[in-house]
Amino acid sequence: MQTESLRANSFLFFEDVYKSYGAKVVLDDIDLAVARGEIITVVGPSGCGKSTLLRLVLGQELPSRGQVTLEGKSVGLPDVTRGIVYQKYSLYPHLTVLDNVLMGPRLSMPLLKRWRVRGELREEAFTYLRKVGLAEHYRKYPHELSGGMRQRVAIAQSLIMKPKILLMDEPFGALDPGTRENMQLFLLELWEEFKMTIFFVTHDLEEAVFLGTRILILSQYYTDDRGDGSHANRGAKIVFDTALPKEAQSTSVKSVAAFGALIQQIRREGFDPDYLQHARDFNLNHPYSFQTLRREENGI
Amino acid sequence: MKNKAKFWGIHAAPSKWLSWFLFALPFVLLILGYLLASEYRHRQNPSDKLLPSFSKMATTMQHVAFEKNKRTGEYQLLSDTLASLKRIGTGLGMAALLGVICGLNLGLFPGIRHLFLPLLTFVSIIPPLAILPMLFIVFGVDELAKVVLIFIGTFPVITRDIYLTVKKIPREQIVKTLTLGASQISLVYRVVLPQIFPRLIETVRINMGPAWLFLIASEAIAAQSGLGYRIFLVRRYLAMDMIIPYVLWIVCIGITVDWILKSLLRYKFSWYMKQQG
Ligand SMILES: Nc1ncnc2c1ncn2[C@@H]1O[C@H](COP(=O)(O)OP(=O)(O)O)[C@@H](O)[C@H]1O
Fold it and tell me: What backbone torsions phi and psi does residue A16 show, to the nearest 5 degrees?
């Protein structure tokens, strides 16, 4: 697709986005177009800027250059259009499970109205709690829940606000492998039901390939025509972008050969410091992917 | 391997009875030691004032606690206690209230932080007792100066404590709250305030000690009533039979207040106690 039509048709759109902290460039000319309803998983070496990318969508940080738009509108400070689930700190320690889920609806309603519809609010909160399988724990405090349960509550807490996009920053990173797999299946079930757009940052390749409908690798291990050495001051780019098949979901696909081969390919193209592809040759074969290289990068 | 150690070594696991015994032992020894020393001194000199016997202390306290003072028409212990508690309550209460307000603002708003944090640090280093004479000059020798001393002595610490607690609230949580539709005001009232409240109780608890110090110091210098005032007044007559029970009384009050605050934390803020581990 042409950049023009992508810009007009994408749900989430990054164009020429840079982010630097002081002199350090973290994100280097990011171009990204995302369709509605996708599960975008982002992987990359640690410290490459995955969370930074997510924070740009969230509005927690502003790009140093370039623009991020959601449904054609430039994203502003964090608000109800974008939900977030972090690895930690997503729940309020001083509130019960039910009150945690009710936080959003309560905050976004004037006092009087809140009082009038309090029964309905409670019902709705329970609907979501049942969906995440925690209805009977509604009176517990976060510290009385296991890690997996906490993340389920956090997901319910975000979903009840019906955000346009759900951002998740290593949400299952602190869970043990078994719980983690259950949470992945659970998230896919929710996605089947709500078809929300999910932007999912993880360092676990298996998780990324299993969950995503589209996978991005963000990496600083590449080269271009800006030369070598420190003066180039390169930041991370999207070096790999492909669609992933989404059929019958079961964790057994993780043992299929193609699954393993894809992970091997990703590991090489994104995580190997010695494997430097030229920016021109990145593996960007998703129909929505596009790249606008500047002259000094491309050398032509 | 069976753990045999009951008392010695880092693996010691005292049984329930032993721990009760260990708890009581130093107190019992202290009381015994006192009794012996008092007995000994009274044998030497029946009118000894330094280590009064328990019965002497009891009769003295009987007078001040349960009989109306002829001159003032009041129960002396009661009126002293109320006067002191009023001062400490007002001073510490004001410090807690303003400490929360200031700490919140310092923690939440970078602008205010830059404006006031250095000043707060400066003020918190001033030894409050060093400016006590100034307070007496400015506020007179009445109640106000004493309350102000307690306030000045505890307010910077409380403010700092609250400020640090607010700053410790993860940035993630603040951002999350914004994605749930919070305005800045509701962020403060629904997320930040409820989380610093238990810490406020805790910091008030910790500041009880300094508050008593400032109270007694100011009462010692100029007052008409109060526990500290009484102790320093009767010192002139070497009235240990009054001083010792008064000190014990202060300890009792301290322990009771501490216990109340701790119970409040335990029952109302179990999530907080859990976090502290
Ligand atoms: N607020 C900040 N100030 C300065 N540097 C930052 C800040 N946030 C992130 N960085 C830097 O940006 C880089 C990318 O961070 P991050 O997005 O957290 O990486 P990832 O999520 O991929 O592990 C890191 O090298 C980090 O040091």
Answer: 50, 45
Cα–Cα dist B176/A257, whole Å: 39
CATH class, domain B68-275, is mainly alpha
Half-sphere exposure of B67 (CA within 13 A, CB side): 9
User: Rounded to whole angstroms, what are the CA distances from B252 to A26, A191, B64, B215, B255?
Assistant: 60, 61, 17, 16, 5
Contact A86, B179 (CB under 8 A): no
Domain boundaries, chain B: 18-44+52-63, 68-275
- With a 6 Å cutoff on the Cβ, whether A202 touches ligand 1 is no
> Is residue B151 within 8 Å of B94, Cβ to Cβ?
yes
Distance between Cα B75 and ligand 1 center (Å): 68
Which listed CATH number (3.10.290.10, 3.40.50.300, 3.10.20.30, 3.40.47.10) goes with A3-81+164-298?
A: 3.40.50.300
Question: In this complex, is the C-beta atom of B179 within 8 Å of any C-beta atom belonging to chain A?
Answer: yes
Mutate to test the pocket of ligand 1, among A21, A57, A221 (most ligand atoms within 8 A of CB): A21
Q: Residue A47: CB within 6 Å of ligand 1? A: yes
Flag whether residue A89 sits within 8 Å of chain B, measured between CB atoms. yes
- Rounded average pLDDT per 10-residue block, chain B, 277 residues: 75 88 94 94 90 92 89 90 96 96 92 93 91 89 90 94 93 91 87 93 94 93 90 91 94 96 91 78
Ligand 1 centre to CA of A52 (Å) is 6
Interface test with A, best of B180, B271, B275 (most A CBs within 10 A): B180
Locate B20 and state its tokens.
Answer: 């009760």
d(CA A47, ligand 1 centre) in Å: 6
Model ipTM value = 0.86
Question: pTM of this prediction?
Answer: 0.83
